[in-house]
């Protein structure tokens, strides 16, 4: 103890610290050396790595650990553990600081797509150049990113030092694309979110019109149109509806993060019209083709639409004698007139080929479609034709071919529609329309299993609704 006091008076503090640590090492080593009675083994060896430089001991300031502090350590203290802690603590701190790299904050700039916009104009508003447009479009080729732009969509950019680092194109709540800069250019990632699909039941009675009453039952315009399309081959929703008719259906709703984002398909539906019940079941075959069938496996779809204009009012029916509203002459009216606003879409009643497209006397602008070998349909008084079609073009059932107008001998905007079999005029409202192909024999077992489940679900919903109404 006397020796230590003398050393304190004559040696610098750093030398004293080094001497103290050496004393600890020597003492600890002596304690750990095996005695003559206990043989040493590899597993009993203790290694104590120590670097004065790494521990920062040689550089410690005057307020660091002093020799006097070492004197205060108990003789039985685990010396190696203390030294190891002293030596490695600063290293751990350095490693911790290295791991916490600064985060790069992305500042997104949103640009709304306007009517008439191009990629060049959108990129220009974001502060980018035509060269950026070229580089990005080359990278996204074959992707859905930036393939179709609609007014109201948002394109977001991350731009640092006039360089595009990221671009995000949100096409819908479920689909988006992210374009990211790389060392060699850009890469694109298409992102598709999967919504949770739930089923919902709705029912209603006809008191005013299908649109009004179905809307009161909670159906969207889209769902009402789909319901009308399913039963439109059997029911004319303008001419045939009666008060007291009813409908019920099971359809899909899509949810994302617990929020309703849209509707899916109609799974099954029933419509009671004039006391007759029509039932439709959605079925997708093994080839991926989807359609609606009745419980017997017959297609709800007919070879021809009953009406080529949706929800139009019949202003003049098929008659053998009628006074012409323009000429004032009494003569046969060989078709059905549908009153509708100018520009209302006109659909091809069935699949076929356009054999006439042009002005035809009192018909005005007119289209004639050939269906198979013996049936033709005529659409007259059009305001205009659908672009991209001409004489000889093939059209599908339900495809828009023109728009309602009042060209030719017409007193107001309407569609004059004729249905001819072997050249003879038939009443479009009463002619028996051929069915589309029924369920394929190879699909019948699978269809009947699907139909059984769908009808069971529909009846279960109806029973629950009835019980709820009774309470």
TrEMBL record:
Residues 109-157 form the LysM domain. Coiled coil: none annotated. Its main location: other. Keywords: Hydrolase, Metal-binding, Metalloprotease, Protease, Zinc. CDD domains: M23_peptidase. Its cofactor is Zn(2+). This is LysM peptidoglycan-binding domain-containing protein. PANTHER family: CELL DIVISION PROTEIN YTFB, PEPTIDASE-RELATED. It comes from the Bacteria. GO terms for cellular component: cell envelope. GO terms for biological process: proteolysis. It is found in: Cell envelope. GO terms for molecular function: metal ion binding; metalloendopeptidase activity.
